[in-house]
Amino acid sequence: MTLVEVKNLGKSYNAQTRVLKDVSFEVEAGEFVSIIGLSGAGKSTLLRCINRMVEIDEGNVIFDGLDVGSLNKQELRKMRTNIGMIFQHYNLVPRLSVIENVLHGRLGYKTTLQGVFNRFTELEKEHAFFLLEKLGIADHAYKRCDQLSGGQQQRVGIARSLIQEPKLVLCDEPIASLDPNSSEIIMDYLKSITKELNIACIVNLHQVEIACSYSDRIIGLSKGNVVFDGPSFMLTSAHTDEIYGTKTVETRKLVTV
Ligand SMILES: Nc1ncnc2c1ncn2[C@@H]1O[C@H](COP(=O)(O)OP(=O)(O)OP(=O)(O)O)[C@@H](O)[C@H]1O
To answer: Where is the ABC transporter domain (predicted)?
Structure first.
C-alpha cells in the first residue's frame, strides 16, 4: 500500500535557488528507503516537506491519503502524530529523564493543559518502558538524558518516535554524530522496527555503503533532482558518480564524511 506519494515537488527558499525540482516518488508501508546526496543536495528539505516542517511550494505530498500541503493547523497536528522524526543531534531535553523524553512523543495526542502538566496514562508509561526494554536502555530510564552516550541518546530518540505509534519515521542523518559501532546498532534497530511494525522509514544518509547494506531502496538526489531511484543492489558506481559528481571512491569518501 502506498503510504507516501511525492508528486512533482518543488521548493525554493528564495527567488534565486530552487532547492527541490520536480521530485516524484512513492513509498510503501514496510519500506526502508535511504536518500543520499551531497551536502546541500536538498535531502533535509525533502524530509521536511513530507511532514510540512517547511512549506511546499510546488506539487503535492500525499501522506496516508491526505494532501499535506492543504491541511489546516489542526489537521496538520493530527497528521504529524503519525509521523515520527529522528534527528542527527537527537533533539532531546537534556535535563529531563530518559522516560520523560520518551513520553514527550505522546504530546501530539494531548490537550495543551495535559501537555503542560505532563499527564500521561499508566498505559503510556508501560508502553514507554516496553520500548526502552526493546531498545536495550531500560536500565537508564531514570537517568538524565545528558548522562547517556550519543548512541544511547539516539535510542531514546527512536523510542520517542515509536511511542507515537507512527506509520512513517523520517530520519535526518541519524548516525552522522555516532561512531561506527553505535551507527550499526542504530541502523539495525531502524531496519528491524520498520519490518516488525510494517511502518515506512525514510533515512537521509551520507554513507553510501551503509545506505546500500540497509535499504530496500535508494533515492539519489543531485542539486534538487532525483537522479537515481531503485533497489540498492542496482546502484552502480556510475550512479554514485552522478549523485556525488566525482569519479573516484577516495574523493567520494572525502566529500561524504
Ligand atoms: N531555512 C533555509 N533558508 C534558506 N536556505 C536554506 C534553508 N534550509 C536549507 N537551505 C538551503 O537549501 C539547500 C539544501 O539544503 P538541505 O539542508 O536540504 O540539504 P542537505 O542535502 O540536507 O544537506 P546536508 O547533507 O548538508 O544536511 C542548501 O543550499 C541550503 O543552504
So the answer is: 4-248
Domain identity same for 152 and 202: no
Residue 213 shares a structural domain with residue 117: no
Q: What are the residues facing 200 on neighbouring strands? A: 168
- pLDDT exceeds 70 at position 253: no
Q: What pLDDT digit, counting tens, does each position of 22-54 carry?
A: 999 999 999 999 999 999 999 999 999 999 999
The ipTM is: 0.97
Same-domain pairing of 76 and 203 = yes
Q: Is the pLDDT of residue 99 over 70?
A: yes
Q: Which residues form ligand 1's pocket by a CB distance below 6 Å?
A: 13, 19, 37, 39-45
What whole-number percentage of the chain has pLDDT above 90? Answer: 88
Q: Which atom of ligand 1 is nearest to the CA of 37?
A: 21
The number of distinct structural domains making up the chain is: 2
C-alpha 140 – ligand 1 centre gap (Å)? 35
